[in-house]
């Protein structure tokens, strides 16, 4: 793991970087005489971290943490993993909960091995930038108030050139940049800066071969368009709110939204309820019920957990761990820096961001001309920068299709997602993953990075099995529509409920919503979230005159199979003729229970 430092004239700027080598120590080589080699080996040894606090096991790779002054086999250098932002730490996300070799334990006091770490296939460099993020620091207070896209790209380039001087054995090796979220700006902007640096100086010690971004900020217009559509198609917001978002929210700006748009965004957040907008089908961290992370539309400009062992509170664990004095000492953090509290994200950096390009599509066109390997991936349960936004942005590039849309498969023969190849760019979705793909789908993410680095297609169905279609061929009559029957039965005063699992692609929630809308029934109860016995959003519901509609979050075509507990709540409410449980119902029950325990009485 390695800490690094930048400086402008008159200021000292420290950028934290963590370096994890592929199994074994850093490679030898790099030119120069023996005395020079001994000097840089000694510097690197001072940066070495034998083990991090709470690491009670041995590993077969090297870790470093140190400082460098900036501003004023498969041969791979690094995979630089820039994460959400602007203002969020790659150490907090990339190292501690996604692709790093260690993940932080739930008590925040130690670490455990990540079996899907990307340092199995590459030497990884995690860069915290710009200044003010994580342990990165400047002794000029105004520096933290003057960050932006251009400055971050320039600082990152200068850091890399200095880092190569510190680790010359990596000079000329293949170099790839990856990142998520706001790194949709950082990564292509850094790639552009590197290529232009090559052209101006002739220095090609940074041998850039390609980059990959995931759930990335691309283009304000298309990102907004895709977010609103994703919210509606997944049943998070009402028809009315969706229409109002399209009318009043300026697609051209994420930051400078109108007061009318902000009001509609507030309504959308209330309708969506307490869900993790970065992964809409997974549990929330109840330690932060009111967290803005769970407010789907609340802070669109601040962009940037599936499976049986998924932990929704990983950020909380990292905050504890990286504030431990022994951790900061092990990472060689300057005593000047560790006087302040370490945070996963800096609101100061975020709110004082000076320049944010509305679109980076023009950079893609420029970089495609260099022949770089460019991949874009998207977890398809993220509502912050959803797959719909990415697809609109890629479509706007107007690139010819080389490989048509097709499913790719993981090692178990399950569909891992879908992929399409374009001239100069490859697009991959990861099924069931949220904003942080390696967190939600670590095994599939490892397949993704292996394919990217190898320049090979994602695994296809031919590697596993052929599907067999089963068709009901003898059905004699099938009405094109039963909407007229609904109108007739509503007149009889029957109790009519319609429910929909929102992950079904055969008869999806969107189809049901269009059909109900075609009935033209007056709304009685507006769109709102309903809650299960654990206080998690079970889905959404809306009452019409004569009909009630309920979605079940995370359920497929067979709702009771995929969400049996929520399905039981559904049938109980239907038979009782009562509304689906609300957040108020859930927390009222908790208060009653707590009072009963406290006073020793049965309620």
Automatic annotation (TrEMBL):
Pfam name, any one: Peptidase_S10
Catalytic activity: Preferential release of a C-terminal arginine or lysine residue
PANTHER family assigned to the protein according to its UniProt record, in alphabetical order: SERINE CARBOXYPEPTIDASE-LIKE 29, SERINE PROTEASE FAMILY S10 SERINE CARBOXYPEPTIDASE
Source organism (scientific name): Oryza punctata (Red rice)
Keywords, in A-Z order: Carboxypeptidase, Disulfide bond, Glycoprotein, Hydrolase, Protease, Signal, Zymogen
Full protein name: Carboxypeptidase
Family under the similarity heading: Belongs to the peptidase S10 family.
Keyword Hydrolase tagged: yes
Any GO BP annotation: proteolysis
One cellular component term from this protein's GO annotations in UniProt: vacuole
Top-level taxon of origin: Eukaryota
Keyword Electron transport: no
Subunit details: Carboxypeptidase II is a dimer, where each monomer is composed of two chains linked by a disulfide bond.
Coiled coil: none
Signal sequence, renumbered to the chain: 1-27
GO molecular function: serine-type carboxypeptidase activity
EC nos: 3.4.16.-
């Amino acid at each position: 793991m390695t800490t690094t430092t930048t400086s402008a004239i008159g200021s000292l700027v420290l950028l934290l970087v963590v370096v994890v080598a592929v199994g074994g120590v850093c490679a030898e080589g790099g030119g120069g005489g023996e005395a020079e080699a001994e000097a840089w080996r000694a510097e690197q040894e001072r940066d070495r971290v034998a083990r991090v606090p709470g690491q009670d096991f041995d590993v077969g790779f090297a870790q470093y943490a140190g400082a460098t002054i900036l501003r004023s086999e498969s041969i791979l250098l690094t995979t630089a993993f820039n994460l959400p932002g602007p203002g969020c730490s790659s150490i907090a996300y990339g190292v501690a909960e996604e692709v790093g070799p260690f993940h932080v334990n739930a008590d925040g006091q130690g670490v455990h091995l990540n079996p899907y770490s990307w340092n199995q296939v590459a030497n990884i460099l995690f860069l915290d930038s710009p200044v003010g993020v994580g342990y990165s620091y400047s002794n000029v207070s105004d520096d933290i108030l003057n960050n932006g896209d251009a400055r971050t790209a320039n600082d990152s380039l200068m850091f890399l050139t200095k880092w190569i001087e510190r680790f010359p054995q990596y000079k000329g090796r293949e170099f790839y940049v990856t990142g998520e979220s706001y790194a949709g700006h950082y990564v292509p902007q850094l790639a552009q800066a590197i290529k232009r640096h090559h052209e101006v100086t002739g220095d090609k010690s940074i041998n850039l071969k390609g980059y990959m971004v995931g759930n990335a900020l691309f283009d304000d217009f298309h990102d907004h368009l895709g977010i609103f559509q994703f919210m509606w198609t997944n049943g998070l917001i009402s028809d009315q709110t969706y229409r109002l978002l399209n009318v009043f929210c300026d697609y051209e700006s994420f930051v400078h939204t109108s007061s009318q748009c902000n009001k509609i965004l507030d309504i959308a957040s209330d309708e969506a309820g307490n869900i993790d907008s970065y992964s809409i089908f997974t549990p929330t961290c109840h330690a932060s019920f009111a967290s803005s992370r769970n407010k789907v539309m609340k802070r669109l400009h601040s962009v940037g957990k599936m499976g049986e062992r998924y932990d929704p509170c990983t950020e909380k664990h990292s905050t504890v761990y990286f504030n431990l004095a022994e951790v900061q000492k092990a990472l060689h953090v300057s005593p000047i820096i560790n006087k302040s509290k370490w945070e996963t994200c800096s609101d100061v950096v975020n709110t004082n961001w000076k320049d944010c390009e509305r679109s980076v599509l023009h950079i893609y066109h420029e970089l495609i001309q260099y022949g770089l390997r460019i991949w874009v991936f998207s977890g398809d349960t993220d509502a912050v920068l959803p797959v719909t936004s990415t697809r609109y942005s890629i479509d706007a590039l107007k690139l010819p299709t080389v490989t048509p849309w097709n499913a790719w498969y993981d090692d178990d023969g399950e569909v891992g997602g879908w992929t399409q190849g374009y001239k100069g760019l490859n697009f991959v979705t990861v099924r069931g993953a949220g904003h942080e793909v390696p967190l939600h789908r670590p095994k599939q993410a490892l397949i993704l990075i292996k394919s990217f680095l190898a320049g090979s297609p994602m695994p296809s169905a031919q590697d596993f099995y052929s599907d067999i279609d089963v068709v009901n061929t003898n059905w004699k009559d099938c009405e094109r529509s039963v909407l007229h029957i609904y109108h007739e039965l509503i007149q009889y005063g029957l109790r009519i409920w319609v429910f929909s699992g929102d992950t079904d692609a055969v008869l999806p929630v969107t189809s049901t919503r269009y059909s109900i809308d075609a009935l033209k029934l007056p709304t009685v109860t507006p769109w709102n979230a309903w809650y299960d016995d654990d206080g998690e959003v079970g889905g959404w519901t809306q009452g019409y005159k004569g009909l009630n509609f309920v979605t079940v979050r995370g359920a497929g075509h067979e709702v009771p199979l995929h969400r049996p507990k929520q399905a039981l709540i559904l049938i109980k409410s239907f038979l009782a003729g009562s509304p689906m449980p609300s957040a108020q119902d859930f927390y009222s029950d908790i208060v009653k229970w707590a009072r009963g325990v406290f006073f020793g009485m049965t309620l």
